[in-house]
């Protein structure tokens, strides 16, 4: 067995499959592109879905790579077990309708056992197969020569994640030896494939040969696929003879740095080791995720990052680190991974800044959390209870990121305890929500053979042409090829060439018309999408007959195309303006270019100010007025990078790319359509900017005609306001509004004073309406007050005098009702509580509420029930004394 570093193992795997004719694909961003089913890229196959379901046809059907992935469904196990990680790398080889079981199995065995590659001892390798998969069993026995006692039939060996490609799989296990055996000899899990520490799964080969259909039946796939996954971390632990993944060269340099910072030894005890492992794991995930554009926030993937960071900080506290330390570990991660991921080193300063800011904010949060715990403790003491609600503790943990352990410390000091069972119930609800959200992860479209069987080229000529004479090469009616179609049908058409741009890269497709040789419009092209090989497929509503092999004229909706071009070029200007104003970290995270507007999503970890928006808008308009030429260049990807062209978020590019250059100001890789010079854009106006979660913000903007019409609408609104305010000029509108606001404020003060006088006048009468039940005096009346604030003022006045022992006041309007209850010492000494009373009478008003023993309030949705609620007070007193 070879002893390899992580970089050597990764490269050896890629070299092996490159020798076998595979295209080596670079790891994609952890943030999924065009896949709403995934929060993170969580496996190698997640990046292959478009190939597996037939949406896109790859240049080479044999693909291999090392894909960084994130999974956080079992975060509690990280650091506790030997192999749980949030970030990990999946080495994988894939066949998209090319080779199948025999090659996948034989090549896996060759890579693992050949002296040229890993040189593992064959005696230590075992495999599991699906019981019904005789083909795989036979290959292992006859082609590989594996003994029968090294092949285990395992019922769970069938990979199925819902609708789409699925099939049996075979797993390869490495026997780490008797010293790793953690189970009794006769234990049901003590075998290769069982849940144990001795036999370590190192590779999973999935044979996608069936379509899992919506009706839960299984049909053979038109194109069978291979999907394999080998965890880099666990394979490395075998080659480096490490007890756990954390003792490999992927983690040890981080652990050593933590030892230096903390002054604590990794081997001090098992509890200390857990803290080291958690921090080492989480800083890798944070570094890569932030480098890929995710930012800490309160939702989505941003919440995951915030949770990882806060968990790391808390484990740092266990090691005696009370000051920010995580950001100093980023350079260690970058150094470990630089051979395959040089971008981490390039983004190091930005990643460190984000982590340091978040660390400092969390330390402030811890201080705020302590204050919140003290408030809860004080409130519970006033309610005369020693139990802290599990819901309150969960909210502290979930919303504020305040650790349960710290809450327990504070609570114990006050001789109180936490309702831990309620807390666990809330935690389980959160886990269930997470599980439900993950149920669709990894699902794929059901594979269709129809489009995969189109082997026709279709040239896009729309960069230079708005129309063309083109020949129909395919007509698709629903899910069948036909040779002709008649008026009234909606069909999909492929032509030998087309000026119509297919929806791609955020740019909406073109629309337009099909004209026959008599110059009659016979079809309206509604939209255009790209087929598996990139062919533009025109969805067309026919108004006349059409036939395969015939020539027709394709005419763009030229006005729509020009509007789209203006909006698209404006997004390039905006992208660079964002970087100029906010910083280089402001990267595109998605865009939409329509005819009537543009939408641009970008990464940013703070608010965008009004001044920053104005500055960006001004920069874009300056570039428009400069009348810059917009030029395109087709070149190699390497040459494009030399030119300084920006590659957009999550996009994959071939060897040859198209660069769109706007003077020297903006250079981007882009296949979309653009104006010839910036002056054609006319005008640029940002109409909204907002956060859309997970450290991502969105700008919506208009250009040319849209911007002009929007400004006209604003001017009309301003003119209308001028007329209503009766001012001579629109410039006087703000001054007039301020004057009106001042007048309104004075009127509200007078109104408030009148309400207060009215309430006090009522109080003089109400406080005389005292009833008595068994020596307890009570007042139970409806008040014509403005709001609950005035009810509370009356309650305060009642407390300062000896009008009665209990006060119950009600307030209602057409839609709702409010109730207030106050008790004095005498009533409470009789065992009465305001909270109990209000709970007893609120059912009459379809409401609920609560409070302290001396004071409670409630709301209800049944105003007509207020008299009954007030009348029930005397009876309640009688029953509870």
Automatic annotation (TrEMBL):
Catalyzes the attachment of alanine to tRNA(Ala) in a two-step reaction: alanine is first activated by ATP to form Ala-AMP and then transferred to the acceptor end of tRNA(Ala). Also edits incorrectly charged Ser-tRNA(Ala) and Gly-tRNA(Ala) via its editing domain. PANTHER family: ALANINE--TRNA LIGASE, CYTOPLASMIC, ALANYL-TRNA SYNTHETASE. Its EC number is 6.1.1.7. It comes from the Bacteria. GO terms for molecular function: ligase activity. Belongs to the class-II aminoacyl-tRNA synthetase family. Consists of three domains; the N-terminal catalytic domain, the editing domain and the C-terminal C-Ala domain. The editing domain removes incorrectly charged amino acids, while the C-Ala domain, along with tRNA(Ala), serves as a bridge to cooperatively bring together the editing and aminoacylation centers thus stimulating deacylation of misacylated tRNAs. Keywords: Aminoacyl-tRNA synthetase, ATP-binding, Coiled coil, Cytoplasm, Ligase, Metal-binding, Nucleotide-binding, Protein biosynthesis, RNA-binding, tRNA-binding, Zinc. The lineage of its organism: Bacteria, Bacillati, Bacillota, Bacilli, Lactobacillales. Its main location: cytoplasm. The keyword ATP-binding applies. PROSITE patterns: AA_TRNA_LIGASE_II_ALA. InterPro entries: aa-tRNA-synth_II/BPL/LPL, Ala-tRNA-lgiase_IIc, Ala-tRNA-ligase_IIc_anticod-bd, Ala-tRNA-synth_IIc_core, Ala-tRNA-synth_IIc_N, Ala-tRNA_ligase, Ala_tRNA_ligase_euk/bac, DHHA1_dom. Binds 1 zinc ion per subunit. This is Alanine--tRNA ligase. Residues 413-440, 737-764 form a coiled coil. Zn(2+) binds at residues 568, 572, 670, 674. Its cofactor is Zn(2+). The gene is alaS. It is found in: Cytoplasm. It comes from Alkalibacterium iburiense. Residues 4-713 form the Alanyl-transfer RNA synthetases family profile domain. It catalyses: tRNA(Ala) + L-alanine + ATP = L-alanyl-tRNA(Ala) + AMP + diphosphate.
């Amino acid at each position: 067995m070879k002893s390899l570093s992580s970089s050597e193992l990764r490269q050896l795997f890629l070299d092996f499959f490159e020798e076998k004719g595979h295209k080596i694909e670079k790891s994609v961003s952890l943030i999924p592109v065009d896949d709403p089913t995934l929060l993170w890229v969580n496996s190698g196959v997640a990046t292959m879905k478009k190939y597996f379901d037939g949406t896109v046809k790859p240049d080479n059907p044999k693909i291999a790579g090392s894909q960084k992935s994130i999974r956080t469904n079992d975060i509690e196990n990280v650091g506790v077990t030997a192999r749980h990680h949030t970030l990990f790398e999946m080495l994988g080889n894939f066949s998209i309708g090319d080779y199948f079981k025999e090659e996948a199995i034989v090549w896996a065995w060759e890579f693992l056992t050949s002296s040229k590659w890993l040189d593992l001892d064959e005696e230590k390798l075992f495999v599991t197969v699906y019981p019904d998969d005789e083909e795989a069993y036979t290959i292992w026995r006859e082609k590989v020569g594996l003994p029968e006692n090294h092949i285990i039939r395992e019922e769970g060996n069938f990979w199925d994640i819902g609708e789409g490609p699925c099939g049996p799989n075979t797993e390869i296990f490495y026997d780490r030896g008797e010293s790793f055996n953690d189970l009794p000899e006769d234990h049901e899990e003590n075998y290769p494939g069982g849940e144990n520490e001795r036999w370590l799964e190192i590779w999973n080969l999935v044979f996608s040969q069936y379509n899992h259909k919506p009706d839960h039946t299984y049909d053979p796939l038109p194109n069978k696929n291979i999907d394999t996954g080998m965890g880099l971390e666990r394979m490395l632990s075998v080659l480096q003879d490490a007890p756990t993944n954390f003792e490999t060269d992927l983690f040890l340099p981080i652990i050593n740095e933590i030892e230096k910072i903390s002054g604590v030894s990794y081997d001090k005890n098992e509890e200390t080791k857990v803290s080291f492992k958690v921090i080492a794991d989480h800083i890798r995930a944070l570094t890569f995720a932030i480098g890929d554009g995710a930012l800490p926030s309160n939702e989505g993937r941003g919440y995951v990052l915030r949770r990882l960071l806060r968990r790391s900080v808390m484990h740092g506290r266990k090691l005696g680190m009370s000051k920010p330390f995580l950001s100093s570990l980023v350079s260690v991660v970058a150094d470990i991974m630089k051979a395959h991921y040089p971008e981490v080193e390039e983004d190091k300063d930005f990643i460190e800044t984000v982590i340091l800011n978040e660390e400092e904010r969390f330390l402030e949060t811890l201080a705020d959390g302590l204050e919140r715990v003290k408030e809860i403790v004080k409130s519970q003491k006033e309610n005369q209870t020693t139990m802290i609600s599990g819901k309150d503790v969960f909210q502290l943990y979930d919303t504020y990121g305040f650790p349960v352990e710290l809450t327990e410390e504070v609570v114990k000091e006050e001789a109180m305890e936490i309702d831990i069972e309620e807390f666990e119930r809330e935690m389980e609800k959160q886990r269930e929500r997470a599980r439900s959200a993950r149920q669709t992860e990894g699902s794929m479209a059901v594979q269709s053979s129809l489009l995969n069987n189109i082997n026709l080229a279709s040239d896009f000529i729309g960069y230079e042409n708005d129309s063309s004479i083109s020949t129909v090469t395919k007509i698709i009616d629903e899910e069948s090829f036909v040779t002709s179609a008649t008026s009234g049908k909606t069909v999909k058409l492929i032509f030998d060439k087309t000026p119509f741009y297919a929806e791609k890269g955020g740019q909406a497709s073109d629309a337009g018309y099909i004209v026959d040789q008599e110059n009659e419009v016979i079809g309206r092209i509604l939209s255009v999408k790209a087929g598996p090989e990139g062919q533009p497929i025109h969805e067309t509503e026919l108004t006349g007959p059409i036939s395969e092999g015939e020539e027709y004229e394709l005419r763009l909706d030229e006005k729509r195309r020009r509007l789209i071009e203006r909006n698209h070029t404006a997004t390039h200007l905006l992208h660079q303006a964002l970087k100029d104003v906010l910083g280089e970290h402001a990267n595109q995270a998605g865009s939409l270019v329509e005819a009537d507007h543009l939408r641009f999503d970008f990464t940013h970890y703070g608010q965008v100010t009004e001044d920053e928006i104005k500055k960006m808008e001004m920069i874009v308009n300056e570039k428009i007025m400069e009348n810059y030429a917009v030029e395109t260049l087709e070149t190699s990807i390497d040459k494009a990078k030399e030119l300084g062209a920006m590659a957009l978020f999550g996009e994959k590019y071939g060897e040859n790319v198209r660069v769109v250059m706007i003077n020297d100001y903006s250079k981007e890789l882009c296949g979309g359509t653009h104006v010839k010079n910036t002056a054609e854009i006319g005008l640029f106006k940002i109409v909204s900017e907002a956060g859309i979660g997970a450290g991502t913000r969105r700008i919506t903007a208009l250009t040319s005609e849209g911007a002009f019409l929007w400004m006209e609408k604003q001017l009309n609104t301003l003119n209308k306001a001028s007329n209503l305010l009766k001012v001579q000029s629109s410039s006087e509108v703000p001054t007039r509004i301020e004057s009106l606001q001042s007048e309104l404020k004075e009127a509200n003060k007078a109104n408030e004073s009148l309400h207060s006088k009215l309430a006090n006048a009522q109080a003089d009468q109400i406080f005389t309406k005292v009833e008595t039940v068994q020596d307890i005096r009570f007042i139970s009346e409806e008040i014509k007050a403005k709001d609950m604030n005035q009810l509370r003022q009356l309650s305060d006045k009642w407390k300062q005098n000896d009008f009665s022992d209990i006060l119950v006041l009600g307030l209602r309007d057409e839609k709702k009702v409010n109730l207030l209850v106050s008790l004095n010492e005498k009533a409470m000494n009789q065992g009465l509580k305001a909270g109990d009373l209000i709970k007893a009478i609120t059912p009459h008003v379809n409401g609920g509420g609560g409070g302290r023993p001396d004071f409670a309030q409630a709301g209800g949705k049944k105003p007509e029930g207020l008299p009954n609620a007030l009348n029930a007070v005397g009876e309640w007193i009688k029953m509870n004394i």
